[in-house]
Design brief:
By secondary structure, the chain is mainly alpha-helical. The protein has a domain at 44-105: Winged helix-like DNA-binding domain superfamily/Winged helix DNA-binding domain (Arc Repressor Mutant, subunit A, Orthogonal Bundle), CATH 1.10.10.10. The chain has helices spanning 3-13, 19-27, 32-40, 46-52, 58-70, 89-105; strands at residues 44-45, 74-77, 84-87. The chain has a three-stranded antiparallel beta sheet. A hairpin with a 6-residue loop joins β2 and β3 (84-87). α3 crosses α6. The longest helix has 17 residues, at 89-105. The N and C termini lie far apart (45 Å).
Length: 113
């Protein structure tokens, strides 16, 4: 068996331990990437984000913001009632990667008929 085959098998056997796999799963969770996209345009209050994402419930948006905050991609600024959400430096660093992934995915994504 070739060394490359051994590497590939070992990689897929421990995929659950792979940081890239873990981050892709997190970012692929519904709404996470869209929240990041809208915050990349500048800080927004909860209501502003809710307006940008009209089909997400307030409960789910709150959960997504909390998860993004725990992962260090989003920070809440200001007092609770008037808080604005913004990308952290790690969140800003992630945006070129997400933008490149979006460009890469365009020709591979089927269009609605």
């Amino acid at each position: 068996m070739a060394a490359e085959e051994l590497y590939d098998r070992a990689f897929f056997e421990r995929a659950s331990e792979c940081s890239v796999e873990a981050w892709l799963a997190f970012l692929g969770h519904r709404w996470n990437a869209l929240v990041l996209y809208h915050l990349a345009q500048g800080p927004k209050r909860f209501g502003g984000l809710a307006t940008c994402l009209p089909t997400v419930t307030a409960k789910v948006l709150g959960e997504r913001l909390a998860a993004l905050e725990r992962r260090g991609l989003v920070m809440r600024q200001g007092p609770e009632r008037t808080a604005a959400y913004a990308l952290t430096p790690a969140g800003r660093d992630l945006m070129p990667i997400l933008n490149a992934l979006e460009v890469w995915s365009r020709p591979l994504t089927p269009t609605a008929a």
